[in-house]
Design brief:
The protein is mainly α. The chain has 13 helices and 3 strands, in the order βαααβααααβαααααα. A 3-stranded mixed sheet has the order 2-1-3. Helix 4 packs antiparallel against helix 7.
Length: about 325
């Protein structure tokens, strides 16, 4: 759809063109996406239920993990159902205001996820460097306040995005080469300067992404220093083992996020758009899919409680028969 050059009226709707150039294999691309979405739903809901159900998991580390699982659920649910509708039923239209709402939630939840990962790094720092004061430092009240501040930071910093987009004139195409409404993908359709949007986007990236990565880096530097100073090799191994799941979650989250961020701003002409769109979807889908699996495999307490839960259900069904 083309709009007159003199018109500054925002379009009534956008066309989400999914992955241009790969239209013939959209259905095949949807299969792993759908499988990963189902795994993420089952894994994260199961993890939240397990942490709520088992009193032995009522500790700060697992409360933060429950936060991460909830955020992961909301993050992938804001985009994947709509993407599957595009792949399966060719339902590409999205209302202009609905696009702005999706944009807010996508960026808001990813910002909250980054904050929760940072809180989890601080949790590991306190657990390893101040083990005797762990329970007194990380009280339930402090955890709730930290979670609330993290949520508010993500929400408040993302509120300007829809308003900054709404002020822009769209007098060219309304076709978005993406499966969801990403801020930069939308503003690139504008026929006026997007300098303010770009600057604000960079500022948010600094206030959330760079700040969180710095806090995580400092936390793990202190952890490494504390672990190396331990005299026992077994103690060092045990301390490191409590961090492996969290380090895996950090890598899975930040690597595709950094790739997506720099591709949007600096790699538009060198990186194929299809690769960028696929990685942008994996950025939202990989963490919710892999985090429950990684924590289930790497964390003994969760693994033991899962086995205990299934054995309890099996025993109850046997007695019933």
């Amino acid at each position: 759809m083309l709009v007159s050059n003199n018109s500054c009226v925002p379009p009534k709707y956008f066309i989400l063109n999914a992955i241009p150039g790969l239209e013939r294999v959209h259905v095949w691309i949807s299969l792993p996406f759908c499988t990963m979405y189902i795994i993420s739903l089952l894994g994260n809901l199961g993890l939240v239920y397990l942490i709520h159900h088992e009193e032995s998991l009522h500790h700060p580390m697992y409360f933060f993990l429950a936060m991460l699982s909830l955020v992961d659920l909301f993050t992938c649910t804001t985009t994947l159902p709509n993407a599957l509708c595009i792949f399966w039923f060719n339902l590409k239209e999205i209302n202009f205001n609905a696009c702005l709402v999706q944009m807010f939630f996508v960026h808001g939840f990813t910002g909250v996820e980054s904050g929760v990962l940072m809180l989890m790094a601080l949790d590991r720092y306190v657990a390893i460097c101040y083990p005797l004061r762990y329970a007194t430092i990380l009280t339930n009240s402090l955890i709730a306040k930290a979670g609330l501040v993290t949520f508010l930071r993500g929400a408040l910093l993302m509120i300007p995005f829809p308003f900054l987009v709404k002020r822009l004139p769209f007098c060219q195409s309304n076709i978005i080469s993406h499966t969801y409404c990403d801020h930069m993908s939308v503003v690139k359709l504008s026929c006026s300067s997007i300098k303010v949007n770009v600057i604000y986007g960079l500022m948010v990236a600094l206030l959330i992404g760079v700040f969180d990565i710095c806090c995580i880096s400092v936390s793990y530097t202190m952890i490494l220093w504390a672990v190396v100073s331990l005299s026992s090799a077994d103690a060092r191994q045990k301390a490191f083992s409590t961090c492996t799941a969290h380090i895996s979650a950090i890598i899975v989250t930040y690597v595709p996020a950094v790739f997506t961020f720099f591709t949007h701003r600096f790699g538009g002409h060198t990186i194929p758009s299809s690769l960028h769109i696929i990685v942008a979807n994996l950025y939202l889908l990989l963490p919710p899919t892999l985090n429950p699996i990684v924590y289930g495999v790497k964390t003994k307490q969760i693994r033991d409680n899962v086995i205990k839960l299934f054995q309890g259900e099996k025993g109850a069904s046997t007695q019933g028969n």
